[in-house]
User: Fold these one by one.
Assistant:
Number 1:
Amino acid sequence: MSRAQIPALVLGVGGFGALVAAITSNEWKVTTRASSVITATWVYQGLWMNCAGNALGSFQCRPHFTIFKVEGYIQACRGLMIAAVSLGFFGSIFALFGMKCTKVGGSDKAKAKIACLAGIVFILSGLCSMTGCSLYANKITTEFFDPLYMEQKYELGAALFIGWAGASLCIIGGVIFCFSISDNNKTPRMGYTYNGPTSVMSSRTKYHGGEGDFKTTNPSKQFDKNAYV
């Protein structure tokens, strides 16, 4: 079994789990601390819900009821994150089939191709997540540093950092999976040659032939008629 495939699988599956946590989180952006101290309220917004809480402990969430009224960058991030999670899921399946320790997937050559495919899928998943999180973060920072923007300003939420971390893990795991093909080619299977069956007489002749005092005798002379007279 290739030593590089185990850490690659751990990184890929771990990145996939981080992407699932990021897409389901509601903390993609949060209200700034300056406004939170004054109003004693906190607002969290995600891809699917808007949540608000106060100092008394009450917490309420409201989903986005319609798709058409959602801003364009949120819809783009939704599509990218859904693609990232889907690719990460299929990448995990391909990675399991491409492992040398599993009995499915065919020969070592076929497993190497499946492992390379899993690496490519993991890399695409990480790129989709990286693009979606960066697009969302760019919108937040643009509004935050715009002096003409008079509406509520937000800061980067924890979900963005989780998404970036998951994307990095997927990309690293995918690269390791792609480079594991060279490791498979360097360790071919051991071959054994079959020389055919060896007769007992030939082995005895070889054994006695090594001794200097061995002489071949004619068995017909040993059992002559005169021997029984």
Number 2:
Amino acid sequence: MAGTVAKTCLSPLALLTRRLSAPEFITQCCYHKKVVDHYENPRNVGTLDKNSKNVGTGLVGAPACGDVMKLQIEVDDHGKIVDARFKTFGCGSAIASSSLATEWVKGKSVDEALTIKNTDIAKELCLPPVKLHCSMLAEDAIKAALADYRRKQQDDQQEAVRA
């Protein structure tokens, strides 16, 4: 049976003919179980208070495919990320990449979070080459959220100097 499924999966014609009759076949055959798990049970969905000085928000998108990802981090007074939330409009791989990214940034320092690379996300989720842009979006969202957090901290320090 597994050999039949693998052969069928590799045939583009089989994908077209099976798409309408058995959509679950496409999911089981073409997405890794880790992607399906994060898609069906996403972690840390939601939002944080974007106006809080301890919250950084990153909003990124990929015009080519239409995926949009918002990732937010909350950082404590010691520079440790204590919470992360996301909202993503996109395919299962984009949602899974966002979900995994929020899990990975929690508990890290701001500098440690910058070391998370799209290749690590793609490897963990076993993303195929055609879906690598999803992991790139997740890395970009992390960097954008961290940049927003740092900008807020600098603005806060400048206001303290003026006072």
